[in-house]
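for the recovery benchmark. tokens below, seq after
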């Protein structure tokens, strides 16, 4: 199963027919993906299950409906084991951004974290889960694929929110503070915790 979020509602892409007992279960050959997204946007549907026994066929059918944007980002820890958060669009988030031409995913993730937060001396320790979410841009739906990395930094300098990207705060949060911040974040970010 792969979960893609739209407005924090899950679209579950499944290969197990046992999900057919779920309320909003559809076979991929019987649906038009943009119309499902439209219904979710209207509030008619919340959680959706789209089925095909072959995941590659299911993924191809699903993704052909979208422009795909790839991004890299980080779940960054300092030497106090605090996690780096940004605040944008009235939600707590983790720093991430689009991969530029000629960049590796890892290079993009480090660059974006540095640009959005001011943190330097980043080191990637492992790759985390990849997340997927859909949003509307210029009246068209976009699928954002975000590759996440666990990073560390012993940076002690001042944090600088990238204001031109709508980021208003950058902070290091303890476990308890992060737990509170996760009450006001996106479901795809919660997957990383």
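predicted aa per position
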């Amino acid at each position: 199963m792969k979960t893609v979020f739209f407005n924090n509602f899950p679209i579950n892409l499944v290969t197990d027919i046992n999900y057919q007992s779920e309320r909003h279960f559809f076979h991929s050959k019987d649906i038009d993906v943009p119309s499902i997204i439209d219904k979710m946007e209207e509030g008619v549907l919340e959680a959706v299950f789209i089925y095909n026994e072959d995941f590659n066929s299911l993924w191809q059918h699903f993704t052909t409906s979208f422009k795909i944007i790839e991004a890299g980002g980080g779940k960054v820890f300092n030497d106090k084991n605090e996690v780096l958060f940004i605040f944008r669009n009235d939600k707590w988030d983790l720093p991430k951004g689009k991969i530029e031409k000629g960049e590796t995913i890892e290079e993009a993730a480090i660059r974006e974290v540095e640009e959005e937060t001011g943190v330097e001396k980043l080191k990637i320790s492992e790759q985390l889960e990849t997340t997927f979410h859909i949003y509307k841009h210029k009246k068209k739906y976009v699928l954002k694929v975000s590759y996440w990395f666990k990073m560390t930094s012993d940076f002690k300098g001042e944090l600088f929110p990238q204001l031109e990207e709508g980021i208003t705060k950058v902070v290091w949060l303890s476990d308890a503070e992060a737990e509170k911040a996760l009450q006001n974040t996106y479901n795809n970010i919660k997957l990383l915790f």
